[in-house]
Amino acid sequence: MAIVTFWGPNVNQSGSTAVAASVASMIALDLSKGYNSILITTNYRDNTLESSFKDIEKLTSRSTIDFTDVGLDALDRLIKSGKLSIENLKDYTTPILKGSLDLMFGTQKKEKELYEKVMQIMPNILDCAEAAYDITFVDVQNGAPDEYVQKILEKSDLIVVNISQSMALLKDFFNNVVNTDLLREKKHVLVVGRYDRHSKYNVKNLNKYFKTKERIFTVPYNTQFFDMQNDHRTLEFFIKYMKEDPSERNGIFVNDIKELSEHILENIVISTNK
């Protein structure tokens, strides 16, 4: 019954959506202990998370899915009519791994004003999801948080902060962002996405440079993973490479995601007595 939110302070720099999809997949496949999770995206005009698991173009072209009947847009109507409940929330999700991981499609609203109206009801949706699922994973818009993202971050039990390996962006983060009230008061974990372990700016040197003892997790850039993500096969990647040699490229990626996922589970309180 915990909310874990994935967010990065810089737009299109940290690969936070890939990390969200990976962590949700890893926990569902290998670490779930019977946990039932939901993965929600709130990004504006961005179907990257959904496309990690489902071919949206094919679904819409074959008319096998109507976005007004699933996802946030359907819940928007339910809330306005007072009909959203813990019992019927799952009817508007798409199963990724039955009994372990469901996907909530994001809003398909193209107009900013309509998108913002949907975002206004996110706290209600998260309350319902938190009651219906053991873990609610939320992928939010990167960059300086607007009022809607800020509310989600404040509501979260744990924030996975995805940072870039760019020194200019890291200086801004450690000098400014990490000292904000939100991150000082809220439990969080730092992750360098698209990480290059051969870089001069590896985690060991970053800890020294910024004089921080906070553990920094890494998720390396992995061509095989991103190809399969683009092919809507994120879950299949982890099924295929879960037992890969940890010294091999895919094994390193899987092992890093597993370490991050285990840390997340250790830092949230989950009750399965629903």
Describe the SSE topology:
Layout: E1 2-7, H1 16-31, E2 37-41, H2 48-51, H3 56-61, H4 71-81, E3 94-97, E4 101-104, H5 112-119, H6 122-132, E5 135-139, H7 147-155, E6 158-163, H8 167-175, H9 181-185, E7 188-195, H10 203-209, E8 216-220, H11 223-230, H12 234-241, H13 249-266
Parallel strand pairs: 1-5, 1-6, 2-4, 2-5, 6-7, 7-8
Antiparallel strand pairs: 3-4
Distance between the termini: 9 Å
The whole-number mean of residue pLDDT values reads 91
Tell me the quaternary state.
single chain
Main β sheet profile:
8 strands, mixed
Report strand order across the widest sheet: 3-4-2-5-1-6-7-8
Helix proportion range: 40-55%
Poorly predicted parts: none
Which sequence of SSEs, written as H and E, runs from N to C? Answer: EHEHHHEEHHEHEHHEHEHHH
| Rg over C-alpha atoms, rounded to the nearest angstrom | 18 Å
- Strand residues, percent: 15-25%
List keywords for this structure.
single chain, 274 residues, alpha/beta, eight-stranded mixed sheet, 8 strands
